[in-house]
Structure formats: C-alpha cells, structure tokens
C-alpha cells in the first residue's frame, strides 16, 4: 500500500476546484447567478388570460353572493304556512291509532247508500 505522500500516478492531479474562463472570480465555483429571463409572447398571453379568468371568477362570486342574500318576506310567510300545515297533519295523524282510524272509515262506509257498494258479480 502506498502512502499519500509517496509518488504515484496521482501526483499530477490538481486538487483545487475548477476554474472556468470568463467567470466572475469573486463568485464561488458551482453557484450559478440568476439570469433575467425575457418573457415570450406566449408567457405574456398566458398571464393576461389568467388575470382575466381571475377577474371573471371574482365577478361571478360577487353575483352569487348578491343573489343569495336570504329569503324574501313572501318566501318567509310561505315557509311558515307550510310548517303550520305539516304540524297540523302530524297532530291529526297522531290523534288516532290505526284501529281507531279503520273503525272510523268502516263507520263512514257503512253510512253511505247502496249506490256506493261494490256490485256482486257472478251467481250467488
């Protein structure tokens, strides 16, 4: 095994960093300076389209926000009337059991004239 101080095939190797031609000497090797990019026509058009799309979204959100301000007085009164009717129906349905309702229906059908009876079909 050869020691690092012994002469060998790696004696001529330069052990410092690379030196590039025409580069800034104060800058470290391997660090690239940020370059200013010129905007192409496509980039300008895409930015304009994005800006217009964002503006349209804002306008639409304002329209939706304005449209959903809440129920009008007519809508409120309709809602209250509907709730009142449903509560009344529920109370009527709870008032009688199924058997009581069937008895009431049978009594009503029994009080009707024979005109509403089901006609007998066939011999008998």
UniProtKB/TrEMBL annotation:
Q: Where is the composition biased (Polar residues)?
A: 69-78
Tell me the Pfam families matching this sequence.
Answer: FAM32A
Basic and acidic residues composition-biased segments: 21-30
| GO CC aspect terms | nucleolus
Q: Where is this region: Disordered?
A: 21-43, 63-85
Q: Which PANTHER family match?
A: PROTEIN FAM32A
Q: What is this protein called?
A: FAM32A protein
State the organism named in the record.
Symbiodinium necroappetens
Q: Which gene encodes it?
A: FAM32A
